[in-house]
Write a structure and sequence with these properties.
Structural class: mainly alpha
Number of helices: 11
Number of strands: 0
CATH architecture of one domain: Orthogonal Bundle
CATH topology of one domain: MetI-like fold
Helix content: over 70%
CATH superfamily of one domain: MetI-like
Oligomer: single chain
Shape: flat
Length: about 300
């Protein structure tokens, strides 16, 4: 009778595994949970440091290229970043750029808040009620596809050329992307949540308070973030097309007098405003919607 050889891999396995199939005790589960949280925290810190380093290197490269190109071109066409920053300081110190900035931020703030409020209201109603969508969605999407610049001359004829017209124009730039974003956000709320609300016999007020509004918050923040960029565009267009004021007046004055460095300083200031406002909205989102932090790269993106 032939003898069979035992597989070495089989002999390497333990004969018994007493811990297999047993559930960890409560202290062990708590310790495992703490370890998982700590690993996620370290990984999140590592990701933030890496992204910060990438951004700093990117800024250094862009500003370095800007400086080199500005040093080797005609001053009337372009200017080095150091000259642009100095010109911006001079505009704040000796000209009226500070007051112009304050005026633009006032009109932007009022128009932005009006646009966000109107956009949330209409977007929520369109998303929650099919009849409202059927009644006004055609006009909303038609106006959303229309460049707002084309409506500015008409708005000045209807409203005038004062600050009220500027606020209305800024609000129009913010409203339409806000409506569309909130509308699609409400429609993407999990249908199972709506079914649960009906099973619990929640009334309309309770459904709005516990399902619709919380579910739409991430999309409200997204629409508000898009509205920042559109609102800043609306500020400059409104100030150029109505009464010449604010940052629009500063930009046009410096450009028409061929002070390129000063004009670039105004443009750089507008860019910094946009980045700052978006960062503020990011902090608001982290506070209101903390469960979306992973989606922005704190733990999953590499």
């Amino acid at each position: 009778m032939a003898l069979t050889r035992r597989d070495p891999a089989v002999t390497a396995l333990p004969a018994t595994n007493p811990g297999a199939g047993t559930r960890p005790t409560a202290p062990e589960a708590e310790a495992i949970g703490r370890q998982v949280i700590e690993r996620r925290r370290r990984r999140s810190q590592h990701q933030r440091r890496k992204f910060l380093a990438i951004r700093l290197v990117s800024l250094a490269v862009v500003f370095g290229a800007w400086q080199l190109y500005g040093m080797h071109t005609i001053a009337i066409l372009f200017a080095p970043i150091t000259t642009v920053v100095h010109s911006g300081y001079e505009l704040f110190a000796h000209d009226s750029l500070g007051s112009q900035l304050g005026y633009s931020m006032w009109t932007f703030g009022v128009g932005y808040l009006v646009g966000v409020a109107v956009g949330i209201a209409i977007g929520m109603l369109m998303g929650a009620y099919r009849m409202v969508e059927a009644a006004i969605s055609l006009y909303v999407f038609a106006l959303y596809a229309t460049p707002m610049v084309a409506l500015v001359p008409i708005m000045t004829l209807w409203i005038g050329f004062d600050s009220t017209a500027q606020i209305v124009i800024i609000a129009l730039f913010v409203t339409w992307p806000m409506i569309v974003t909130v509308f699609h956000g409400v429609r993407q709320i999990d249908p199972e949540l709506m079914e649960v609300s009906r099973s619990l016999r929640l009334n309309k007020r309770q459904t709005w308070a516990h399902v619709l509004l919380p579910g739409a918050v991430p999309f409200v923040i997204t629409g508000a973030t898009q509205g920042v960029a559109m609102g800043l565009v609306g500020v400059i267009i409104a100030e150029l097309q109505t009464q010449l004021s604010g940052l629009g007046a500063a930009l046009q004055t410096q450009a028409q007098t061929y002070h390129t460095a000063a004009a670039l300083a105004v443009v750089l200031l507008i860019m910094v405003l946009g980045v700052t406002l978006r960062a503020i909205l990011g902090l608001v989102q982290r506070f209101l919607v903390p469960w979306l932090r992973l989606d922005r790269g704190d733990g999953k993106r590499r």
